[in-house]
Design brief:
heterodimer, A: mainly alpha, MetI-like fold, 80% helix, 0% strand, B: mainly alpha, elongated, AA_ABC_transptr_permease_3TM (chain B)
Chain lengths: 215, 222
């Protein structure tokens, strides 16, 4: 029988936290890219494209993330794709993040006064250039706080990937708990690690929010 | 790959799925009510004269909001027994959901309380109402009306998040899905159907809450 010292527990948890951070970062980056696509569709001039994006967002916001992960994890192999927990986790969180981010940014785009579009077209800019040079910079500036707030939510959501077998913080803590029988200590430390990751971001989001209010 | 989807198992499973859905609704009903009541107390305490109460509630809110629900659930279900508190899975789930929801709704209710104009409180005091009456009869109803839409969203989010309580063997919707797919070997179809059930439940719950709010809160919810 191996004895686990407190340091062994903490060290293993911190090692596992690296995967939580990596997964959050990759999913946030992926979610940003796909989210931009969904955003463009959501504000498209074509009605059916807008509709599609609306349903896409509604679907991801109206079902549990756990179900989305299960569907990818069990569904993609049916299409003949070999899938590992890491792939399903990244894909699931990316798609989910894209829906939430697109909806946040759409709020920003809508808050940009219509005159800005007019000004853009009177300068002879075509649609994409209006978006890129005039509308999106303002929309992103306005939605910085909720975007950071969503990143916190995304970091917490990575905990669910433990259920489909991805070795991140929670899954590692389950294993450590099974070896040490010290759930109070183990899950307490896990909570502290998540808190250490999320709290600075929450603070940062709060700061951005206050700064936006001042302007 | 010649995989054919098969929903033949569904006939026998409908009752189980319905039972699971009922359990999910029960969990969210209890924790939504308890969470709302607690968050009214929390929001009032957040505006208390005593700094200790204010800070304790602020710390609680920050801690819950910055840790995953799954970890909170494991801490309550697996961790508390080492302090001699052993909970039934359903009780642990309700406790975790209530505590989690309270942290979010305390902020929401607080924002509502701040949105009520000060003159309302002063007018009520001038009419001779006692401070507690002022809070319950004048400030709170107006605050609830303002925050009702946000509260509704939070309840729906909590309902969706309650899927993870299947991990401590509470027999709710996700747990029944796990059991079904283990029996039928039709994992994708099972989770597909259950996802649709969740989608219907989140849409239905939102409609129900909005309709209920229109009735209860005078003047309706915008």
């Amino acid at each position: 029988m191996i004895e686990f010292t407190l340091w062994d527990i903490v060290r293993n948890l911190l090692m596992a936290a690296r995967w939580t951070i990596l997964l959050s970062a990759v999913a946030f980056a992926g979610g940003t890219i796909v989210g931009l696509l969904i955003l463009f569709m959501r504000i498209s001039k074509r009605r059916w494209v807008r509709r599609f994006a609306e349903y896409y967002i509604g679907l991801f916001q109206g079902t549990p993330l756990l179900m989305q992960l299960f569907l990818l994890f069990f569904g993609l192999p049916l299409l003949g794709l070999r899938i590992e927990p890491w792939t399903a986790a990244v894909l699931g969180l990316t798609l989910c993040a894209s829906a939430f981010l697109a909806e946040i940014w759409r709020g920003g785009v809508q808050a940009v006064p219509l005159g800005q579009w007019d000004a853009g077209s009177s300068l002879g800019l075509h649609y994409l250039k209006q978006l890129r040079l005039i509308i999106l910079p303002q929309a992103f500036a306005m939605t910085r706080a909720p975007t950071v707030g969503f990143l916190v939510q995304l970091i917490k959501s990575t905990a669910l990937t433990s259920i489909i077998g991805f070795e991140e913080l929670v899954r590692t803590s389950n294993a450590i708990n099974n070896a040490t029988f010290e759930p109070f200590k183990v899950y307490g430390f896990v909570a502290l690690i998540y808190f250490a990751l999320c709290f600075p971001l929450t603070r940062y989001a709060k700061m951005l929010e206050l700064r936006a209010l001042k302007h | 790959m010649g995989y054919a989807l098969d929903f033949g198992w569904l006939d026998d499973a409908i009752l189980l799925i319905a039972n699971g859905a009922a359990m999910t609704m029960f969990l969210i009903a209890v924790s939504a009510v308890a969470g709302t009541v607690l968050s009214i107390l929390g929001a009032a305490g957040r505006r208390s004269r005593h700094a200790v109460i204010r800070q304790a509630i602020a710390a609680y809110v920050e801690f819950v909001r910055n840790t995953p629900f799954l970890v909170q659930l494991f801490f309550i279900y697996f961790g508390l027994p080492s302090l001699g508190i052993r909970l039934d899975p359903v009780v642990a789930a309700i406790l975790a959901m209530t505590l989690n929801m309270t942290a979010y709704t305390t902020e929401i209710v607080g924002a509502g309380l701040d949105a009520v104009p000060k003159g309302q409180k002063e007018a009520a005091l001038a009419l001779g109402l006692r401070p507690r009456q002022v809070f319950i009869k004048i400030v709170l109803p107006q605050a609830l009306k303002v925050i009702y839409p946000a509260l509704t969203s939070q309840i729906v989010i909590m309902m969706l998040e309650s899927a993870v309580v299947s991990q401590i063997a509470v027999r709710e919707l996700t747990y029944e899905a796990d059991m079904l797919q283990a029996r039928t070997f039709r994992a994708f179809e099972t989770y597909f159907i259950v996802t649709l059930v969740y989608l219907a439940m989140s849409i239905g719950l939102r409609r129900l809450l909005v309709a209920g709010g229109n009735r209860l809160l005078s003047g309706g919810v915008s």
